[in-house]
Amino acid sequence: MNLVCPICEKPLFRQENRFLCPENHSFDIARQGYVNLLPIQRKHSAHPGDTREQVLSRREFLSGGFYAPIAEALAAAAKKYDACGPILDVGCGEGYYCTRLAKAMNAELTGLDISKDAVRCAAGKYKDARWLCATAAQIPVEDGAAGLLTSLFAITLPEEFHRVLRKNGLFFQVLAAQDHLLGLKKIIYDQLIFREKDTIPELPGFALLESIPIRFTFTVEGSQVQNLFAMTPHLFRVSKAGADRLRETQSLTDTASCVLNVFRRT
């Protein structure tokens, strides 16, 4: 998968421990193996994306295998629809899902996240992939570079995804359903407010092939309760009282509920 410069959009070429474009924009390859292609003018904050603490909590939780059914559903869909690489995972986080999918498909993988801490973590653990710190609004790869694009509990930008996918390429989108993690929500919130959620969106330039519900129950104990909480958006919404109640919770049985949408680029 060929990279392009995030500043001038011309091709990037590797020279020893850096990538360089014809306009002489240079991007070093970090010691861990990732490349930072997020220029300062495209940052909306000093440290965009997940923090190091969130990334480590997610890695610890996912390494426990609690969300393995999601990884298995991705691999099954890839087999069913004859998905081909290269794979581009947008919002890759610490790399749990996409590395397992790439292994199942025996495909080349590029993971992208706006969080430098996330790609640093991914690059440190998974060496058989390319990891980029970049924005999904301007993905620094050439047109039609990916055979399969994934966005798992992350952002969807149809126009940009359409650009980087090859003709008839596949897009796997995983979205949380309305009843996702109700057990956790009942602890941290005084009152649950249900808003209608569109888990099967219409995307311009894409045809929906299938919408696959994924639902399973799991139990976490001790520190994994806090790890689960820390990897969700609820971390930034909860009140002090709700956070205190969760800290007192030593065991939690909950249900993960999400949807895997399989799209084809048209």
Compute the gyration radius: what is it? 19 Å
Which term fits the overall shape?
globular
Instruction: Classify the oligomer.
Output: single chain
Mean pLDDT, all residues: 95
The main pleated sheet reads as:
8 strands, mixed
Plain-language structure description:
The chain starts with 12 loop residues before the first strand and ends with a strand. It has helices at 52-62, 68-80, 96-105, 116-125, 158-164, 182-188, 223-230, 240-247; strands at residues 13-15, 18-20, 26-28, 35-36, 87-90, 109-113, 130-133, 146-152, 165-176, 206-221, 251-265. The longest helix has 13 residues, at 68-80. It is of the alpha/beta class. Helix content is 28%, strand content 28%. An eight-stranded mixed sheet has the order 4-7-6-5-8-9-11-10, sandwiched between helices.
Question: How would you summarize the topology of this molecule?
Answer:
Blueprint: E1 13-15, E2 18-20, E3 26-28, E4 35-36, H1 52-62, H2 68-80, E5 87-90, H3 96-105, E6 109-113, H4 116-125, E7 130-133, E8 146-152, H5 158-164, E9 165-176, H6 182-188, E10 206-221, H7 223-230, H8 240-247, E11 251-265
Parallel strand pairs: 4-7, 5-6, 5-8, 6-7, 8-9
Antiparallel strand pairs: 1-2, 2-3, 9-11, 10-11
Helix pairs in contact: 1-7, 2-3
